[in-house]
Amino acid sequence: MTARILRIELRRTAALGIAMLMLVTGAALLLSATPSFAGRWMQLAVMARSMLMVLLPLALAGGAWMGQRDARYRVNELLASTVRPRWQRVIPTASALAISVVTAYLLIFLIAAGWVVPTSGYFPSATILVTAVGVPALIAAGWLGMAAGRAVPRVITAPILAVLGFALVGLAPELASSPAMDTDLAYFRPEPAAVLLIPTFTGLDDFQTIATSVSLLQALWLASLAATGLLLLGASRRRAIAYAVLPAVLGVTVALPLLPVGGARGAAVVDPVAIELVCDSDGPQVCVTRAHTALLPAVVGPARQALAMMAAKLPNAPVRAVETRQVSFWARLDPHAVPARHSPDTFVFDTPSFDHVGHADLSGDYFLPSLLQAAWQQECGERPIRGEVYRARMVAAAWLTGRPPTPPGWAPDEVAQMQSTYQAFVSLPEAEQRRRMAAARESALACRDDELVTILPTDQQ
Amino acid sequence: MMRTVSVAETAPSTYPWVVHTEKLQVRAGRHLAVNELDLRLGTGVHGLLGPNGAGKTTLMRALATVLKPAGGRLTLLGGEVTGDADLRAVRRGLGYLPQHFGFYPRFTVREFVEYIAWLKEMPKAAIPGAVQRAVDRVGLTDRADSRMKTLSGGMLRRAGIAQAIVNDPAVLLLDEPTVGLDPEQRLDFRELLREIGLDSCVLVSTHLVEDVAVACSDVVLISEGRLVWQGTTGQLTEQGGAGDAGDSATERGYSSLLRAYRGRVSA
Amino acid sequence: MRWLRLHLRSRRIPLALTTVTTSIALAWALSLAYTDSATINARTASLTIMLAAVAVGTTLTGADDALDRSMAINWPVRRAGHLLLAAAVITALLSLSTITDTRYEPFALVLRNTTGLLGLTALGATLLGAALAWIAPTTWTLIAVLPSMGPSQDLKMQVAGWLVQPAGTTAATVCAVTLAATGLLAYALRGCPLRPANETVSDR
Lengths: 461, 267, 204
What we know:
The complex is a heterotrimer of chains A (461), B (267) and C (204).
Chain A: H1 2-12, H2 15-31, H3 41-50, H4 52-67, H5 69-72, H6 76-80, H7 86-113, H8 126-132, H9 134-151, H10 157-176, E1 179-181, E2 186-188, E3 208-210, H11 212-234, H12 238-244, H13 246-255, H14 263-267, E4 268-270, E5 277-280, E6 286-289, H15 296-313, E7 320-323, E8 346-349, E9 353-354, E10 360-361, H16 367-373, H17 387-401, H18 412-426, H19 430-445, H20 450-453
Parallel strand pairs in A: 6-7, 7-8
Antiparallel strand pairs in A: 1-2, 3-4, 5-6, 9-10
Chain B: H1 7-10, E1 19-28, E2 31-41, E3 44-49, H2 56-63, E4 71-76, E5 79-80, H3 88-92, E6 94-97, H4 109-119, H5 127-137, H6 153-165, E7 171-175, H7 183-196, E8 201-205, H8 209-215, E9 218-223, E10 226-232, H9 233-239, H10 249-266
Parallel strand pairs in B: 3-8, 3-9, 6-7, 7-8
Antiparallel strand pairs in B: 1-2, 1-4, 4-5, 9-10
Chain C: H1 2-10, H2 13-34, H3 42-57, H4 65-69, H5 75-95, H6 107-128, H7 135-144, H8 155-160, H9 170-190, H10 197-200
Helix pairs in contact in C: 2-3, 3-5, 3-6, 3-7, 5-6, 5-9, 6-9
């Protein structure tokens, strides 16, 4: 019989409407940002979790709307004369809301997965767990919203809850990570562990995954919160309301001490499968990471072109091109870790941009210059780099192509200055150019910049 | 279509009165709307009459266990209704139509009556049949699957009656059930009342004196929260004389009793 | 003045006014206490104005639409005046903060966001009824205040996040003016959809 009542509730209440609103909003937002997750399952999972920033407030508001139903239609008098106590009565309605919001969330994920399946390199199993944490989060939001709507059955309750919910899941994490100026770099002080109680993520590096323990702890805490919401919804006596908060309290006391500090950066670990290399060996070897497998076809051409240019003009030129396997600095908890250096027979290039479907977006004429500059780059750890070093690398890359540098998006007078620097360099004798460039490359590979900046005229060093 | 009757129902009752109140006091807000009311109701159709503000709706609410009595004793179906008692057994035998009948507009009639039947813990297998039977008895068979917000006032009232009778209650409380019913529907309704009153205790609160005169076997007259008079409809008509206000014998009896009561009170 | 007082009470305006004032004051107080900047964060301000607009949305209908419509007074003018007065009140309350250290500013931004959100609320009230008028402003504001939305050069982002765009952004201003004009016209001419009295009473 409860199945029949559940069907009635699904068809005749606002649950499906709320789910439609969430589905349309979430899908529209997610599909407008496909380059950030196309071809990568883990990024899709993290983006789906970041959609909770909008979905959780909507679930709260929708729950508040549904919780007011009895007061709005004045059925309380009639229902008070029936047999079943309130906690039994709310179960079909609460279940209908839970089913609806969860279905909307999963549908958003599945729809966006259409932009991941064709171009993904591998499927990390953590994707499922990370996405699944959103399920108890939405159920908790819906049920807490229903309890609030029943307690304060006014129209204004729903939007107020939406704002409060957003302040909690959208604004609070930003406030918790207040930037603290370090001596050399501005890096963010690790956020307290409580930030991980909030189920949204703002961003994750392509090479990272979320630790299983963190996801499980979050799921546990959110499930306890959902239980509290349901108990609050069904409680009629004051004592029952007091007992209703026990599951959430229990969930916090268990999860909070075990959660790591640092927010998403603290919860993330490097995924060893993501940084495995996938190589194209028909010719000089070009490798990308497994997470970025879809980029390989587009990258191979320019990479081999760059290798040829380097071989033509540099002694001891690199013979293979490898994509960087460094996690971006903003995603690292410890920015001062020193990574391993690569050998001179390889050059390491930065990941190109993704386009909407997960292939490489090489438009804008930026990629080949960045490949060429990589001959003068090395993993030296995070340290401040002077502007002259960047300009010197640009001149060096232009020297390899044999044409003046045309950095896109620069002001005309700065472009003119770059070109004059280049002209000054190529006016030197050919042998001198080669000698200076080779020396600059050697010192750069040893993490010294002094030879590199000698490329520039003395007045700009 | 008859419903199956359980053994418990055919057993002789162990209590003398279906509804029994002793010095019942019920508050509506801060005002003591029902003030030391003694009432004894058995099987049959009882009409509840009284001026506005007499406490009829409050009394109905207390009998429906929606309001807790502030004092005195209320016994329904042999079970005492106090603040902490487990009212579930009593409520299984109750049917209640409030004066303001709140409903979920998007539910269909059938779905709403099913929902109430589920809330009254009727056995799962019996619900669809009981719902159909209730809907047929109130004459809404052709509108059973239309949404309640599309129903007219009279049909809504009949849907309300349907949800009240779906569990064949031993105590049926109807507060203003004939509001919005056209004369033909009122005739059908009286027939329905008489049929139910054969083995249940029905209490109908209404202002329409002709309904009371025709359908009810017993009349309860209350004013200012107290019992003024209880007797058969025949006795009520005998109370009235030519000098009393009213267009029918029942109305004359009503106003005569009220006048006498007010005279007693002010004296 | 008696009729005005009764009209205000019938539309539950004292409660709406309290909500408006409380949300504006609360956001102002929180910004004063927890931030150092003189201008209130665009996101906070947008959420506050949204709550104010939604509170006004609950006053857009009375207890019985059918009864109201049968009255002989000039409803379109009254409804338009209702909205314009609400916009003026909210803008005035927000501008009160300019005498303090934490301000809702600049004025053009405040005016744009208030009129745009009120127009959206009124449009929602005309299409869905006053009880559901909060859906569109709430959803759009939530989208606009996401951390990934900010002042941008892209036209689509400027329209989607019009609330947080800086004061002179053409696309955002056009969007707000369109919403305001459409909402005002639709609500003044059509009013809320006719619902039975049971359903129009949105609060107890």
